[in-house]
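Sample pair:
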Amino acid sequence: MVSLEQTVDTSHEDMIHDAQMDYYGIRLATCSSDQSVKIFDVKNGTHKLVADLREVPYIHREKRRLKFHWQVAAENKIHEGPVWQVAWAHPMFGNILASCSYDRKVVLWKETRGEWKNIYVHIGHDSSVNSLCWAPHDLGLMLACGSSDGAVSILSSSGDGNWDTKKINNAHTIGCNAVSWAPALALGLPIYQPLDQKPQLMKRFVTGGCDNLVKIWKYVDEEDQWVEEQKLEAHSDWVRDVAWAPSIGLPHSIIASCSQDRRVIIWKNDGTNSTWNYKVLHTFDDVVWHASWSVTGNVLAVSGGDNKVSLWKETPDGQWVCISNNHPQGQVTKTTVSSERTL
């Protein structure tokens, strides 16, 4: 059973494009076409605005200092276009939020002693930056960003306040719409490792683009570069979102992709070879914009142009069923996926 828990009045002046809860589920970040990013405390059914990041650094109350702080904000290159997406870093790195925008910028924000300031602005793209995603914390403070210029940039903190950048040019022709990291641990490894055993970590992420493709990328240490590991073809229109499911301790990898072709596709790899099998989860009545996994990786949320959010879960026999799709309470729709294919 799914029920409405809380409604937040953001007071954004234009369309809201993204809303993300932090690791602990007590803060909400939103972004909008009004060029702002807002952060709310959400506790016990109440919400309170704690930061409007159009005004960072905060303007002091003294009128004599007002002009100076607006100059600082301008020099720090706050967003000057619609903000498409926000993403929270793992709390072990502090309260850090990333945002990306039509203005070609990726901005990193950090809370210090109760005040939010932008700590880094990445301006390495030639067109709108559409998507961003933080890597698993095991890999360090690392952020992947996909842009309409077709490139994917990977930002990593050097630990001294500086950021290193690697770029995958022409990752997707026409443009990259979405990016999502794979779990850091290799398939099948237990969640808890012996203290004297160094876990086997992998750097991989998946992207979706305007070339109708889903691509998997991995980092090769010997070559010090990102290479294309797999190209997955099944969609017949732009891929709007991709989501790599959490799979710690499980013997397989799962990726969900959604597209302008109105379909959501589930890709699965068992780790024994490079073959990815796929199933069409469902063909919807309108474009599908977003897909997002639960923390446990067994429930998929899907939203689209029909203004509905539906939840899907895999049954023990490998079928995907809809467990909630905005119908009145007690009404559940069950849908069986199409036949399995292999790539």
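Confidence is low (pLDDT under 50) at residues 56-77, 327-342.
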